[in-house]
Amino acid sequence: MEIKAIGIDLAKESFQVYGIDAQNKVVIDKKLNRSNFKVFMSRRPISRIYMEACSGAHYWARLFKSYGHEVKLIAPHRVKPFVGHQKNDRNDARGIVEAGLRPEARFVGAKSLWQQDLQSLHKVRDLKLKHQVALINQIRGLMSEYGVILPKTHSKFKTLMVETLEDGENGLSPLIRDECGRLFKDYLVVSDRINEVEEKIKAIAKESEFVKRAEREVKGVGYLVASRFLASIGDVGAFRNGREVSAWLGLVPRQHSTGGRTRLGRISKHGDSELRKFIVQGARAATIAAMRKKDFDWDHEKIHRLSEQKGFNVASVAVANRNVRRMFAILNKLSVVQ
Hints:
two-stranded antiparallel ribbon, Nucleotidyltransferase, domain 5, 13 helices
């Protein structure tokens, strides 16, 4: 029995498997637990498997590829129109198959193990940065209630915080002084943890030819931006050109055209918001540097002119769009994700 396609609705402990043959007849319709699911898929003849790009999907994609299957991941929002009125596991699995078999179907590149490791490090860093900001805001808020105003910048905050805790005549009660001291210790621990994670990311980035070239050739891109881009993009072969990568990251205008009239609005902001934020912030830094330089090269002159015509923010997003395309071109030239 030849199986044309298998759709799988993933969960942590329950898996719905839905398969059709060449005549589009249902030949597999099973719900399995985790242990049985692995055994079942290992015994299947080589097939094309479709799954939503959700939690755990990249792990299952690597596992199924090791069994010899061809695996395609689909973004959840592309599956939703095919689920139907009633959402359940079976309808989800059937909708995944229907979405995957569409001629215009677009797929998500499956990540390798080291790409997931690198992306996980960035997520840990994001979490610790949020903790760091929460702690500094809590300390500043508590101190301000007692007439002590602390600066926002981390270096100045650390210096003045030490002085404030040692000053016995600044109006802080012993209780609040003790509690703020404990919060400050937590802040220092989190800051050290951020530095540790950044060192791990830097060590990985140093071994990547793509990161080295991106830092050298693309203005506004450092090891954090380049490594995050490399970890997020998955399989570079999933994109036909740089514009598709920009669209994937939401850096192209949102279109609302009708009646032959083209209407372009603000950027769509699709995709990975954290990666987009990193790229845009780097582009803003590059735009500021271009505006300050007196001796322009071609890139700086173009950025400066665009900034004068369209404004700083539009110019920064345009630089971000260009940087994404350049990073894709570098990665595509290297021909293989390292």
